[in-house]
Structures are given as C-alpha cells and as structure tokens.
Specification:
9 strands, single chain, six-stranded parallel β-sheet
C-alpha cells in the first residue's frame, strides 16, 4: 500500500512535534530540579547563618583541647564552634581577651552566640559577655557563676584544692606578672583524685603533665557585673565534683536562674560525659530562636 507525500509530511510533523514536546519537558524538569536544589541550598545556607555559633571557654589547668569530645559532637550536628585560648593571667585580663574575641571577630558579627564556660571559664564568660548583644545564652559546665564583687576563693568552699598551697601546688614565678604573683600548677599526684576524678588513670596522668597553670592572683580578684542578670543561663552540675562542690555550683546556678542539669561526673564532665554536656549546649542553642 502506498503512502502519499502529504501523509509522509504529516507523520514527520507529528514525530517532530513529539520530539520538541519531549525536549521542552526535559528542560522544564531540569529547571524545576535546579530551582529546587537551589532553594534547598539557599535554605541550608540560611540555616547555617542563623544557627547560633558556639564559643567554648576552657578553665584553669586545661586548654581548649579539653572540649575536643564536645566539639566533635557539635560539629557533627552542624554547629560552627570556636574554642579560643584562655590566657589564665587573671580575671580582668582573661575576660577582656574573650570580650574582644566576641566583639571584634568578623565571623561572629550578626550571628547569635551561645557562650560556654568550664570551671574558672565560667567566671570569665560571666564578665566577658557584658555588653555583647550577640550573646544569647550562657552555659556553665562545672563552673563558677560569680556575682559582682565575689572572688573565686570566697565562692569555693570545701574544694579539694583548698588547703596548704605547698601541699597542693607547684608555684613558679613568671616574668611580667604583678609583684609576688606566681603560676600555680596542681601537683601531679593531686590531679587524679581531685581534678580528674572519674577518668582512667592514664588519661588523668596526661592531664596532669599537660596542664596550663593559673596565675594565683586570679583566685582573689573580684568579679565584675555579671552577664547572667541579662542573659538566659544553663548549668551542668557534676554531682561528684571535688573542685567546685555540687552544693556551691547549685547555689550559684539557682541564684543566676539557670536551667540545671545534674550529671554523675567529677569536675571534668566535658570529658567524662561529653554527650550530656553537648545536649545541654544544643538545648540552649535551640532556645535562642
């Protein structure tokens, strides 16, 4: 059976139209998929920008690596984390250092900040956060939460580090310090049953060997106006802490109106109970929205 020329042209037009329709459909699909991916990417970028930044302040006889297990969990959960060094030269100096980090670091500007302090670092964040509008939450981990005019030695009653300094510390003069000031190192044989309780002996021994000293003058320096009077606070309290007894931590946390989480841990709950500490930090971060 023969097919007329007009029939052949009709069939060709139909095939061509089908190809064009398929091509247009593919372009529309690709554009839609691209726009969807772009929207998801934009949404993810917005989430990263608006999600609070976590700034961690370590305490005395430690360095920023004491936060390593907490940092890994926070980063896994998508948070940007900073753990700047604490100079450990005294409360005014250390607070001013952290204050400058918070106010002059371009990466933090325009983003909410959750500020976390461990031990002596709690006193530092209490002072450093004053006048920093970006700080939306304070988290205290086995930490001092001083009020104005209070010194750490007055707050810390019944500590395993209270006693004859010669029995507890190796005291070493340091250049450039105030007259008579010294660096205080915890004696290595004191660390396992005081500062690092609840940790394996080999880990406690490493902590004892690598500790960074605190200027002894820091213990008697009065704290300034406290940021916790204007900023919401959370507190992790180690119920087996021998450095800052739980009763002292609870008194300070209640006074600050902090939301309290008790954990069965010694003074270094950030190492022995990192998941519990991370959960409190993330709860504080979610509460800033």
């Amino acid at each position: 059976m023969s097919i007329s020329r007009s029939g052949r042209w009709t069939r060709r037009r139909l095939v061509l139209a089908s190809c064009v329709a398929a091509a247009v459909g593919a372009v529309v699909f690709l554009l839609s998929a691209s726009q969807g991916a772009s929207a998801r990417s934009d949404s993810a970028r917005v989430a990263r920008v608006t999600r609070p930044v976590i700034v961690l302040e370590h305490g005395a006889w430690a360095d920023a690596s004491s936060w390593r297990l907490v940092i890994a969990r926070l980063q896994h959960d998508g948070y940007t984390v900073y753990a700047p060094p604490n100079p450990l030269r005294g409360l005014p100096t250390d607070s001013a250092y952290l204050h400058e980090f918070l106010t002059e670091n371009a990466a933090l500007q325009g983003r909410p900040v959750v500020l976390v302090g461990h031990s002596y670092g709690g006193a530092v964040i209490t002072n450093a956060a004053v006048g920093v509008p970006g700080v939306k939450a304070l988290v205290y981990v086995d930490a001092f939460i001083p009020d104005r005019g209070e010194s750490l030695e007055k707050l810390d009653t019944g500590s395993c580090l209270a006693g004859n300094p010669a029995d507890l510390f190796d005291l070493v003069p340091y250049p450039g310090g105030p007259q008579g000031d010294v660096d205080a190192y915890i004696k290595q044989n004191v660390v396992p049953n005081c500062f690092a309780t609840g940790l394996p002996a080999p880990e406690a021994a490493v902590i004892a060997a690598t500790q960074r000293p605190l200027a002894a003058s820091a213990l008697s320096e009065p704290s300034g106006p406290p940021a916790w009077k204007a900023v919401r606070s959370w507190a992790v309290v180690g119920t087996a802490d021998k450095v800052i007894p739980p009763a002292d931590q609870l008194m300070m946390a209640h006074r600050a109106g902090a939301r309290i989480t008790k954990v069965h841990a010694g003074h270094l709950s950030l190492i022995s109970r990192p998941q519990s500490v991370t959960e409190v930090i993330e709860h504080a971060a979610r509460s800033t929205k």
